């Protein structure tokens, strides 16, 4: 805007300045000439007007007629005085205010007669002397005294210099106004032409973009655009490729698709992931050997396939007891670990570990992240705790991770994927270290409304930190809206709803929903036999009959997951439908997490207690039958979890609040045989995609119990119908698509920045912000964006 204003004002000032000087130079002499001419002409007119009267008065020797005419002429304020002399000393007739002692004397003679003061005054007057010829016969004695052969009389016309000056000034003012007006017209003309030129140029670029580069390809693009053509062509190619990929509904989003996309759109660009939790944890066993553990983390489940597809670097907290023993001097290790005697993996990547002291971990991870932000963002009615010392650690650890990323970056513009609420400050810190980086931050948990977020004493700092990102992702449009509303409440930022972006401190951040998902694999050939084997094996291991009905719950032991409410729903089911006593159980896998925090140890205690109480209650009603709650508070690896999914015909996901919840999606993906029922909390992000689940309010115990009863009696045909719809959606909106959409948006942003740089280089003008947004919009339209957006699109179409 400033540049634009300058572009208007500077030419205006320059033109006015030049014209001002010109008007000064030209108008002075010009006006003097005009005034002189006017005075001379007026004196001439006076002489013509008086000539007859003079002749008459000379002939008749009577000056009264002449004197009258002279008086009437001097009534005009421009004429000061008039005299007619027959000789320098003899005045024939004169107006009243003519200095009589002067007669018609000139020069020194005149000064002698009137004295120096009057002479000075006279010198300021405009005095014009005109000799008028008179006939020899005329005048009798009067003229012939002075000029016996006829000769002449002298007419003296004095004009008022002040009046002439006033008119002079007036004319000068008009002239200046004329020049100024001319200047303004010229400046406007200049601006209009410049503006037209700029628009013409922009339209040229637009034409090249909108005709798909045809004009550029045929060499018909205008010459001003020629320097940009390589960049525009690349941009178009990338957009067309995106459209081709995304329009093609038959495309299978697989690791290969992601690889192709990285090669085509981010060719050669390095990708760095940052998360708190590491994807592989090296733990030391009691016997001294090392085992590799996979964490129970939805984030790791989702991001790992992306890393394997792009072979980048993952920076994370090294939390395992043997982590330090397996890294190189720069704290790096290649992962996934190669099994003994195995071949090197083609999709390995680098894990860079960051070491934290116990104090740092306490303040940053347990304190600010998990006692502060976690309960702040989840509505589970656990009060957030904010301590100043935790905040200080959180800041310090974010800065340490920023240093580690900058240290890992081989280029000055890597694509950095920042994961989750542990790193709200990291994007801005990274922006300071790597200004040209493309920073994609994904917030894996919900974002609350502005009132709730306002509880955090460092709300502004958190928002400012996050707005260092190029792209900021949430699971659902609702979380995006909450975030924008929060920014609006706390920061002086420019929010553009139309393209969902926030501009703050010179940085534009796109805020988008990217519903996270899971890897998708087509059903195995032996899916049925494998499922049957798993069903039998689990029942056998638990001492249950082959007909025993099972529901599964898999969670971290977290108060947001609604584990207690789930068990209460089982109790209510058995109370209402005693026929299921001894014939149905919930297998609850609960991976211990954050157990040093009071809220978590209290939950651990409560969950165990409720399971014990409900089982005792059931045992009283149906002695000797299997317990309704089979509680497994332990870690299970992903293969074991999948076996449980295949073995249990119902899954219960009853989170009180959840960003997405990948267990719901994993269960659907594992049901390759097409049967099974998912009971899903309406407060989990997954509910906005998996509509065919039995959606419940987990706080409403009876409703969940009813859903359980319905699931236990649902006809297999209905199960398959619902499962097929959910599986189709997941096959389409899988984790590769989640990552792909984010990376494509990043590629668009990078391309936009490159084209903009080029425009600045070529023209020195910053292109308007909206110019290169069309590709994203077009892709959103083609893609349907998220399943929710696709759904909205369909609804709109129907209407
Ligand atoms: O839900 C967000 C998330 O980051 C998950 O990805 C992960 O399961 C959890 O929170 C964090 O768990 P932890 O504190 O054990 O890393």
TrEMBL record:
<keyword id="KW-1133">Transmembrane helix</keyword>
<feature type="transmembrane region" description="Helical">
    <location>
        <begin position="174"/>
        <end position="198"/>
    </location>
</feature>
<protein>
    <submittedName>
        <fullName>Trehalose-6-phosphate synthase</fullName>
    </submittedName>
</protein>
<feature type="transmembrane region" description="Helical">
    <location>
        <begin position="6"/>
        <end position="27"/>
    </location>
</feature>
<dbReference type="GO" id="GO:0005992">
    <property type="term" value="P:trehalose biosynthetic process"/>
</dbReference>
<keyword id="KW-0812">Transmembrane</keyword>
<comment type="similarity">
    <text>Belongs to the glycosyltransferase 20 family.</text>
</comment>
<dbReference type="InterPro" id="IPR001830">
    <property type="entry name" value="Glyco_trans_20"/>
</dbReference>
<keyword id="KW-0472">Membrane</keyword>
<dbReference type="GO" id="GO:0003825">
    <property type="term" value="F:alpha,alpha-trehalose-phosphate synthase (UDP-forming) activity"/>
</dbReference>
<dbReference type="Pfam" id="PF00982">
    <property type="entry name" value="Glyco_transf_20"/>
</dbReference>
């Amino acid at each position: 805007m400033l540049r634009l204003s300058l572009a208007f004002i500077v030419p205006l000032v320059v033109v006015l300045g030049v014209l001002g000087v010109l008007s000064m130079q030209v108008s002075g002499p010009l006006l003097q000439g005009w005034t002189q001419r006017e005075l001379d002409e007026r004196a001439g007119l006076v002489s013509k007007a008086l000539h007859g009267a003079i002749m008459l008065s000379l002939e008749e020797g009577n000056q009264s007629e002449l004197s009258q005419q002279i008086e009437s002429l001097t009534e005009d304020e421009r004429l000061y005085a008039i005299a007619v002399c027959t000789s320098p000393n003899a005045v024939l007739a004169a107006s009243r205010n003519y200095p009589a002692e002067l007669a018609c004397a000139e020069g020194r003679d005149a000064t002698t007669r009137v004295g120096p003061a009057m002479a000075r005054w006279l010198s300021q007057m405009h005095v014009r002397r005109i000799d008028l010829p008179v006939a020899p016969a005329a005048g009798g004695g009067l003229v012939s005294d002075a000029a016996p052969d006829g000769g002449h009389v002298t007419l003296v016309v004095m004009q008022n210099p002040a009046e002439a000056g006033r008119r002079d000034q007036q004319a000068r003012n008009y002239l200046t106004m004329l020049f100024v007006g001319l200047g303004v017209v010229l400046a406007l003309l200049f601006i209009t032409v410049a503006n037209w030129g700029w628009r013409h140029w922009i339209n040229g670029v637009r034409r090249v973009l909108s005709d798909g580069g045809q004009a550029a390809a045929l060499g018909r693009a205008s010459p001003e655009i020629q320097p940009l053509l390589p960049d525009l062509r690349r941009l178009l190619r990338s957009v067309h490729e995106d459209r081709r990929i995304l329009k093609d509904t038959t495309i299978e989003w697989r690791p290969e698709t992601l690889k192709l996309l990285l090669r085509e759109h981010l060719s050669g660009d390095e990708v760095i992931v940052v998360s708190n939790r590491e994807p592989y944890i090296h733990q030391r066993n009691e016997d001294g050997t090392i085992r590799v553990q996979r964490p129970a983390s939805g984030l790791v489940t989702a991001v790992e396939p992306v890393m394997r597809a792009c072979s980048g670097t993952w920076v994370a907290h090294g939390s395992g007891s043997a982590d330090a023993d397996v890294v190189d001097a720069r704290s790096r290790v290649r992962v996934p670990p190669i099994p003994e005697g195995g071949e090197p993996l083609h999709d390995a990547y680098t894990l860079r570990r960051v070491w934290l002291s116990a104090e740092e971990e306490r303040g940053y991870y347990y304190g600010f992240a998990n006692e502060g932000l976690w309960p702040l963002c989840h509505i589970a009615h656990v009060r957030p705790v904010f301590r100043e010392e935790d905040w200080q650690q959180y800041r310090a650890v974010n800065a340490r991770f920023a240093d580690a990323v900058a240290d890992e970056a081989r280029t000055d513009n890597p694509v950095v994927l920042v994961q989750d609420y542990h790193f709200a400050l990291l994007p801005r810190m990274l922006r300071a270290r790597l200004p040209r980086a493309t920073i994609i931050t994904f917030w894996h948990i919900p974002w609350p409304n502005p009132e709730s977020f306002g509880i955090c004493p460092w709300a502004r700092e958190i928002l400012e930190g996050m707005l260092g990102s190029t792209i900021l992702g949430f699971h659902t449009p609702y979380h995006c809206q909450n975030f924008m509303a929060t920014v609006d409440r706390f920061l002086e930022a420019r929010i553009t709803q139309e393209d969902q972006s926030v501009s703050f401190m010179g940085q534009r951040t796109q805020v988008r929903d990217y519903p996270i998902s899971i890897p998708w694999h087509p059903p195995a050939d032996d899916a049925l036999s494998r499922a049957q084997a798993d069903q039998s094996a689990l029942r056998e291991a638990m001492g249950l009959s082959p007909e025993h009905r099972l529901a599964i719950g898999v969670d971290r032991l977290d108060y947001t997951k609604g584990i207690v409410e789930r068990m209460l729903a089982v109790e209510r089911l058995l109370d209402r439908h005693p026929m299921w006593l001894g014939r149905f159980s919930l297998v609850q896998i609960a991976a211990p997490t954050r157990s040093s925090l009071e809220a978590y140890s209290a939950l651990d205690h409560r969950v165990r207690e409720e399971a014990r109480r409900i089982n005792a209650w059931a045992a009283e009603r149906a002695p000797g039958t299997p317990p309704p709650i089979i509680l497994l508070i332990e870690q299970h690896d992903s293969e074991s979890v999948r076996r449980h999914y295949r073995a249990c015909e119902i899954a219960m996901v009853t989170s009180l609040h959840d960003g997405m919840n990948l267990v719901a999606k994993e269960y659907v993906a594992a049901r390759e045989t097409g049967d099974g029922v998912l009971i899903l909390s309406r407060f989990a992000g997954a509910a906005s995609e998996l509509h065919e689940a039995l959606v419940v309010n987990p706080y409403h115990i009876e409703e969940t119990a009813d859903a359980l009863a319905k699931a236990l009696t649902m006809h297999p045909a209905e199960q398959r119908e619902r499962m097929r719809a959910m599986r189709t959606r997941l096959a389409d909106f899988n984790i590769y698509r989640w990552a792909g959409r984010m990376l494509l948006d990043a590629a668009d942003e990078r391309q936009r920045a490159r084209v903009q740089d080029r425009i600045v280089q070529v023209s020195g003008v910053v292109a308007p912000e909206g110019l290169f947004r069309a590709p994203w919009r077009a892709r959103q339209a083609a893609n349907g964006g998220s399943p929710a957006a696709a759904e909205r699109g369909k609804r709109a179409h129907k209407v």
